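cron nightly-structures :: item 1 of 1
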Amino acid sequence: MTKKIKITATGDSMLLRKFPVDYNHAEIKNIIEKGNIKLTNLEMVLTEGNVFASTFCGGEWISSDLVNFDELMKYGFNMYACSNNHSMDYSYGGLIETYNYLSKKRVAFAGIGKSLIEATKPTYYTYINELNQKVRVAMISLTTTFIDAARAGDANDFFQARPGINTVRNNSIYYVNQDEMAILKQIAKKTEINGERDNARKNGTLPPEEPGTFNFGGIFFKLSEQQGKLTECNKFDLQRIIDSIKEAKKCADYVIVMAHSHQIKHSDYTEPDYFFEELCRKCIDEGACCVIGSGTHQLKPIEIYQGKPIFYSLGNFIFESHHVEKLPIDFWDKYNFDRLLKIDEMENILSKNGTVGLEFDEINYLSYIPYMEYENDKLSKLYLYPIELTFNGDLIHKGLPVRASQANINRIYTQLVNISQDYGTKLCLKDKFIEIII
């Protein structure tokens, strides 16, 4: 039987307070509600504050009061991706409190867990569509950007499992010519940057280096006539994601992958890294109906691969890092601030009075909500509804999504055309939305 499905999704949700009383969330909710399946990336730790801060963070320690999740739910989301670079900002306690709270709310979420198995496994949502068909959808959440201590782990006969997030590691090799390689080896010899690692390999506590590579302080180089970088997915992690998709395909009519990634090919944030392209395409090959990316706050390309969409990043949906009210002492120490300074005073210093930083770059406040229709696992319609996050001069509403102005609709359209052209994606600007030509 042909089963129809409608999907809407957003990028990163970083909601740190209740809605202002005059904020009209309904206009955005109306777009999201076009979908049967409505997804977002939950980029914050949900906690009442009785947790320990990690020594690392995803840029800044991001936590939100539990009650703020009720505000996020007002948009109508029914599936939540939780694996990202902020998931472990408040260590195991913050992750477990988030996990327990979402479980208590009985919402479909994935990407975090009390073990690697749990963090990797799909979450499911079942609904009845307009044709009175029961449709079951699976969602897998993963991140490629993380601190190693955030990785979930499994149990064995000796130790219990480790809580954490669903991660995909990658391997990077940099290609240099003979002259450059000679210089690297000369520097390594003079500085003894590899001394500790060389001894560890002699003692068998580190695996041998890959043949033909040179390890310079933990970064691997290879000889090549053409200089550059190559990245590829960690084979163990990639296979684990493949297995999760296969598991989901047995139990669901559709499988969605939500993927968070900050890595880039070169120096432009709009370029997804090589290994991330590999990962997203492999997910489609194995049966995912779409891959919905997020990560570096800006929009990235759209690719129609094997007839299925890959959104390499939707950017932000809610971006309220400027409303952080609670931070661990590590934040003061990270920037060598006087501990008597208030948070807003430190933020002013870091942003040079609001002239630099993610929160002050308008490009991070432009996004869209994709609307997809499928019939029997085949994409039949794909529209993009441009949105903008309030930006200029309005601190009360800053970072909250509204319908994009016509000027910003044109701007988003032009940007997507430019960054997606190398993938062969064809876009058509309509009145208030953008159509992807399938």
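cron nightly-structures :: done
The chain has a mean pLDDT of 94.
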